[in-house]
Write a structure and sequence with these properties.
With about 120 residues, this protein is an alpha/beta fold. Helix content is about 45%, strand content about 20%. The chain has 5 helices and 5 strands. Strands 2-1-3-4-5 form a 5-stranded parallel β-sheet, with helices on both faces. Helix 2 packs parallel to helix 3. About 30% of the residues are buried. The model has no long low-confidence stretch (mean pLDDT about 90).
Protein backbone atom coordinates (compact mmCIF):
# COMPACT_ATOMS: atom_id res chain seq x y z
CA UNK A 1 0.00 0.00 0.00
CA UNK A 2 1.17 3.53 -0.82
CA UNK A 3 0.04 6.62 1.10
CA UNK A 4 0.50 10.37 0.68
CA UNK A 5 0.59 12.45 3.87
CA UNK A 6 -0.16 16.14 3.37
CA UNK A 7 0.42 18.33 6.44
CA UNK A 8 2.32 21.58 6.94
CA UNK A 9 3.70 20.40 10.29
CA UNK A 10 6.80 18.23 9.88
CA UNK A 11 6.23 16.90 13.40
CA UNK A 12 2.69 15.83 12.54
CA UNK A 13 3.90 14.22 9.30
CA UNK A 14 6.43 12.20 11.33
CA UNK A 15 3.71 11.11 13.78
CA UNK A 16 1.34 10.11 10.98
CA UNK A 17 4.16 8.35 9.10
CA UNK A 18 5.10 6.33 12.19
CA UNK A 19 1.45 5.44 12.74
CA UNK A 20 1.05 4.36 9.11
CA UNK A 21 4.20 2.25 9.28
CA UNK A 22 2.89 0.54 12.42
CA UNK A 23 -0.39 -0.06 10.58
CA UNK A 24 1.50 -1.83 7.78
CA UNK A 25 1.62 0.84 5.06
CA UNK A 26 4.71 0.02 2.99
CA UNK A 27 5.35 3.22 1.01
CA UNK A 28 4.77 6.70 2.41
CA UNK A 29 5.32 9.99 0.58
CA UNK A 30 5.13 13.33 2.40
CA UNK A 31 3.96 16.77 1.20
CA UNK A 32 3.92 20.02 3.18
CA UNK A 33 0.91 21.69 1.52
CA UNK A 34 -1.52 21.41 -1.37
CA UNK A 35 0.94 22.65 -3.98
CA UNK A 36 3.53 20.10 -2.86
CA UNK A 37 0.84 17.38 -2.77
CA UNK A 38 -0.17 17.98 -6.38
CA UNK A 39 3.51 17.88 -7.40
CA UNK A 40 3.98 14.57 -5.54
CA UNK A 41 0.91 13.20 -7.32
CA UNK A 42 2.44 14.14 -10.67
CA UNK A 43 5.87 12.72 -9.75
CA UNK A 44 4.31 9.41 -8.61
CA UNK A 45 1.89 9.05 -11.51
CA UNK A 46 -1.06 9.44 -9.11
CA UNK A 47 -0.17 5.97 -7.84
CA UNK A 48 -1.47 6.22 -4.27
CA UNK A 49 -3.90 3.98 -2.41
CA UNK A 50 -4.88 6.69 0.07
CA UNK A 51 -4.22 10.36 0.90
CA UNK A 52 -4.23 11.71 4.46
CA UNK A 53 -4.89 15.42 4.10
CA UNK A 54 -4.72 18.21 6.68
CA UNK A 55 -7.20 21.08 6.34
CA UNK A 56 -5.33 24.10 7.70
CA UNK A 57 -2.19 24.70 5.65
CA UNK A 58 -0.52 27.76 4.13
CA UNK A 59 -0.48 28.47 0.39
CA UNK A 60 -3.16 25.90 -0.57
CA UNK A 61 -5.37 24.46 2.16
CA UNK A 62 -6.76 20.94 2.43
CA UNK A 63 -10.28 21.69 1.24
CA UNK A 64 -8.93 23.30 -1.94
CA UNK A 65 -6.50 20.42 -2.45
CA UNK A 66 -9.33 17.91 -1.97
CA UNK A 67 -11.37 19.67 -4.65
CA UNK A 68 -8.36 19.69 -7.00
CA UNK A 69 -7.77 15.96 -6.47
CA UNK A 70 -11.41 15.13 -7.11
CA UNK A 71 -11.49 17.26 -10.30
CA UNK A 72 -8.71 15.31 -12.06
CA UNK A 73 -9.48 11.96 -13.70
CA UNK A 74 -6.19 10.37 -12.57
CA UNK A 75 -6.70 11.26 -8.90
CA UNK A 76 -10.47 11.46 -8.37
CA UNK A 77 -10.72 7.79 -7.40
CA UNK A 78 -8.04 7.92 -4.71
CA UNK A 79 -9.61 7.80 -1.23
CA UNK A 80 -8.87 10.93 0.83
CA UNK A 81 -9.03 10.93 4.61
CA UNK A 82 -9.11 14.39 6.11
CA UNK A 83 -6.75 14.31 9.08
CA UNK A 84 -7.09 17.48 11.10
CA UNK A 85 -7.77 19.21 14.39
CA UNK A 86 -10.94 20.73 12.87
CA UNK A 87 -13.93 19.04 14.52
CA UNK A 88 -16.60 21.57 13.54
CA UNK A 89 -19.61 19.94 11.91
CA UNK A 90 -19.56 22.40 8.97
CA UNK A 91 -15.98 21.44 8.09
CA UNK A 92 -16.81 17.73 8.25
CA UNK A 93 -19.83 18.23 5.97
CA UNK A 94 -17.84 20.44 3.57
CA UNK A 95 -15.09 17.82 3.26
CA UNK A 96 -17.48 14.89 2.79
CA UNK A 97 -19.44 16.85 0.16
CA UNK A 98 -16.12 17.72 -1.48
CA UNK A 99 -15.32 14.05 -1.93
CA UNK A 100 -13.46 13.05 1.24
CA UNK A 101 -13.83 9.37 2.05
CA UNK A 102 -13.51 9.86 5.81
CA UNK A 103 -12.40 12.25 8.53
CA UNK A 104 -10.02 11.78 11.48
CA UNK A 105 -9.66 14.33 14.26
CA UNK A 106 -6.17 14.74 15.76
CA UNK A 107 -4.92 13.26 18.01
CA UNK A 108 -5.71 9.73 16.86
CA UNK A 109 -4.56 6.21 17.62
CA UNK A 110 -2.77 3.70 15.40
CA UNK A 111 -5.85 1.47 15.59
CA UNK A 112 -8.19 4.25 14.47
CA UNK A 113 -6.07 5.23 11.50
CA UNK A 114 -5.64 1.56 10.48
CA UNK A 115 -9.42 1.09 10.74
CA UNK A 116 -10.15 4.17 8.62
CA UNK A 117 -7.63 3.20 5.95
CA UNK A 118 -8.96 -0.35 5.84
CA UNK A 119 -12.50 1.01 5.48
CA UNK A 120 -11.73 3.34 2.55
CA UNK A 121 -9.15 1.21 0.75
CA UNK A 122 -10.75 -2.16 1.43
CA UNK A 123 -7.48 -3.84 2.40
Amino acid sequence: MKALIVDDSSTMRKIIKKTLMQAGVATIVEAEDGIDAMQKMKENGADFDVVLLDINMPRVDGVTTLKQLKAIDETKGIPVIMCTSEAEKEKVVECIRGGASDYIVKPFSKDLIAEKISKVVGK
